[in-house]
Amino acid sequence: MTLPVSQTLLVCPEKGILHITLNRPESRNSMSLQMVQELQATFAWAANNAIRAVVLRGAGGHFCAGGDIRDMMTIRQQATDNPQAYQHFNRTFGHLLTQVNSSPFVVVTVLEGAILGGGFGLACVSDVALAKADAQFGMPETRLGIIPAQIAPFIVQRLGLTQARRLALLGLRINGEAAQKIGLVHEVYADNEGLEAALVRVIQDLQQCAPHATQVTKALLQQVGHQPLEQLLDDAAEAFACAIQSAEGMEGGMAFVQKRAASWVL
Amino acid sequence: MTLPVSQTLLVCPEKGILHITLNRPESRNSMSLQMVQELQATFAWAANNAIRAVVLRGAGGHFCAGGDIRDMMTIRQQATDNPQAYQHFNRTFGHLLTQVNSSPFVVVTVLEGAILGGGFGLACVSDVALAKADAQFGMPETRLGIIPAQIAPFIVQRLGLTQARRLALLGLRINGEAAQKIGLVHEVYADNEGLEAALVRVIQDLQQCAPHATQVTKALLQQVGHQPLEQLLDDAAEAFACAIQSAEGMEGGMAFVQKRAASWVL
Amino acid sequence: MTLPVSQTLLVCPEKGILHITLNRPESRNSMSLQMVQELQATFAWAANNAIRAVVLRGAGGHFCAGGDIRDMMTIRQQATDNPQAYQHFNRTFGHLLTQVNSSPFVVVTVLEGAILGGGFGLACVSDVALAKADAQFGMPETRLGIIPAQIAPFIVQRLGLTQARRLALLGLRINGEAAQKIGLVHEVYADNEGLEAALVRVIQDLQQCAPHATQVTKALLQQVGHQPLEQLLDDAAEAFACAIQSAEGMEGGMAFVQKRAASWVL
Asked: What are the backbone dihedrals phi and psi of residue A143, each rounded to the nearest 5 degrees, phi first?
């Protein structure tokens, strides 16, 4: 199955890792409806093609500056004909967030420059978030008379209610170091060299991990809080028994005893 | 509608901001039943009078030292006649916490001196919490043979279970810097000048934000986790479409394009 | 009632505190089925014998290196006869985690050396976690082709989803200082002297707190999020009225007024 064609993204598979670059640098990679739909298609492709991780970043020194103003102005001009266009535009981005959040591979974001609105939301659904110290994170919506709608639940889940309230209600911007302190990103680097070296290390780390076990673990973590604890533990014990008796579990155990790298380590 | 009369509070509206000062400095602003009821009336007034934010602080260098001992001793003397008086006293404070937590405006707390028991609970339901570095935060209840009852859910929501367990079970006190590290407060200042300057800045920030959009955003954040994710995202998309087509949304969009301040910026 | 006999644990009651030392240093205190069952019996004994706190640590410089490899190899050899043995082995450890998490006394962990897999899970269900700066925390499961199954919900509850995803999906190890920054442990010390002094202080702190009030508070905190807020607050008000009218509540109030230590302070 070939990669979906994309006009707004640069997409490059390499040894089981899919590198996706948001590529609308002229608008700081703001989210057009087209870009949202191309991301949906690309993540769907990755889920069906044994991809172990997606690395998501932006071209031109910015990650993503939020929703595309031009798309919104186009909708405004058409709004008398199609009053639900705004709702559809907004909701589609939410479908993307849900898809990325629950994707069956590891999602790494590389966060530089502007990470605003929808870009902030995308950062919040990544498994590993690496940032430049001078990156700018923010939810400017209320300053524009609108609301952080689709991103709200993912922001609260990522930061907790306390930090989400302050940032969203005051429309504040914070830098990478502040973003790390509140648990939005995991690692922060002062320069590009540090950031790129960290990305190489993260990729090496995730290649140490068995692909299927990683997928099952990610699904399990997401399930926490969505079913009763004892039932979740029962299911987890069953999944554990499956994992340890699977080809991966057998290979992992043998590699450990034989003090060698497992077969999935690249 | 005139402000409710209050004996335990100093209340001062100024440009859409309501400044409330707990004013029982002789008892470090401990929470009497009267003070709780006057706060309820004042917050209800604010919700009906286009207030954009409440700034809550204490007179005399303390925020609030917890429940009022004198009230509790009075109840003890009357307890044979009214065994449910303790329960009512306690539960009323919980109603206040729920009211403040879900109030339709931004709540800013300025935290100095003692922030204990019920005062600790109030800090936990503010949208923005500014503290002095030498402030003393704590839940001393278990050291007094009683329990942190009404504040418990708000503490857990604010700090997470891990920090809540340690602080409540050991009856510990922590200072402002430690409070910031565990996510209880957002900003900490060594001296009064720093604290007051921060308050001025927070008020300026919140005045940049559209009042109605702020109210809708606050309600949306509070809704997270209380309804299924996909339904919440559907509702949020509808709210987004309303917001962008509202007077605020139109003004916000125009102000952005015209590179000027929006009409709601004071 | 005498303490249950134990081959894998050192157990020592002292002034209402039960000191439990995982004592399989030859395997870095890895969790055998026998050790799990002996911990279950010992925690059950403590719950029925007026124990105010359990201090849990490991012999030989390590806390616990995870599930016992020898037990798992034995199961592998028997697996054709008993395919559910893995599931039972795994699920039993989950029952222990639930038991420790909801135990009616304060649980303090002292974390040195390896805190891996199941050991990581045990750290996550303690009320107070003290660590050495050079301790090694990690979930290596996915690197072994298996999954962090029973510990998953307790990890997410302790660290939040954001940190849990990164650590579990990359199979990372972090030291004590990093563990404190993400809220896994409360206090970190560079040397043994600092760690032991902290433990003495924690024990002094918890002995300041009324035993029954502490028990009720712990149960209340755990209840948050598991019943509707207003109902929880109603129940909490009733529990408050009980507490303040109890022998502990009367003694606590009198000790406060008389500026003396309460009777439960050792």
From this structure: -75, -20
